[in-house]
Design a protein that fits this description.
The chain has 5 helices and 11 strands; from the N terminus they run βαββαβαβαββββαββ. The chain has 229 residues and is an alpha+beta fold.
């Protein structure tokens, strides 16, 4: 019988750490847990590994303000104690923001995640972009070509977009959008941006765009609920 206790961690990933890939991030967290001397649980079998589950990988070069990971400990600890122990051993650019104890039978964050907020700073100001965004949101279908498992496939991405908001008050255009993010449906923000730029007759360059992923959500009866309550 598994008597482990499940905890959900919300953390930020910024600065130089945005250039650490997902697998390296996993190894980094595993080492940090050991340094913090947390009683982490391990899987059974010939190659035991720490019981750590990320909600969804953060793409290389993207910042995250509400990343989620589940861990299992072999005995209970105070949530603030876990948070302080990890932050004392983490590098600059990674910070644990919140720790909550979960019911062991709660759906894992990887299976539960469905939507995410993205805050996007474009490379310049687009005075007429609001009309383009209105056109996007009014469409019933947005069919684009995507390569999935080395095969070209037409995908309707419109159901994956809940909203897109425009902020044109500054020197550059900023967007805030909520799009599908998870195993049941996923829309990469750069795919959405490339489509928006094409409607404006502009060339899209991801290297000149800053993207911050914010809150990750699950969906319960049509209502979005933050993964870390």
């Amino acid at each position: 019988m598994n008597n482990n206790i499940k905890y959900r961690l919300e953390f930020s990933k910024t600065d130089r750490m945005i250039y650490i890939g997902h697998l390296d991030m996993l190894k980094f967290l595993q080492r940090t847990i050991k340094k913090a001397k947390l009683p982490i649980g391990y899987s059974w079998g010939y190659n035991p590994h720490q019981l750590i589950t990320f909600a969804v990988p953060l793409p290389l070069g993207m910042s995250g303000a509400g990343e989620i990971v589940d861990i299992q400990l072999t005995h209970p600890m105070d949530c603030n104690e876990i948070k302080d122990a990890l932050n004392s051993n983490l590098s600059q650019g990674i910070s644990v923001l919140k720790v909550v104890e979960m019911d062991f039978h709660d759906t894992s964050c990887a299976a539960a995640v469905a939507w995410a907020d993205y805050y996007i700073t474009l490379n310049k100001k687009f005075d007429d972009i609001q009309g383009t965004i209105n056109s996007v949101m009014e469409k019933k279908e947005i069919n684009i070509e995507r390569v999935i498992k080395k095969k070209a496939k037409t995908v309707d991405i419109r159901p994956f977009i809940r909203y897109i908001e425009v902020d044109n008050d500054g020197e550059v255009t900023e967007l805030c959008c909520n799009i599908a993010t998870g195993s049941q449906g996923n829309l990469k923000p750069d795919v959405l941006l490339e489509y928006i730029y094409s409607l404006m007759g502009e060339d899209f360059d991801i290297t000149k765009t800053d993207i911050l992923r914010g809150t990750l959500y699950t969906q319960e009866k049509g209502v979005l609920v933050p993964l870390c309550p």
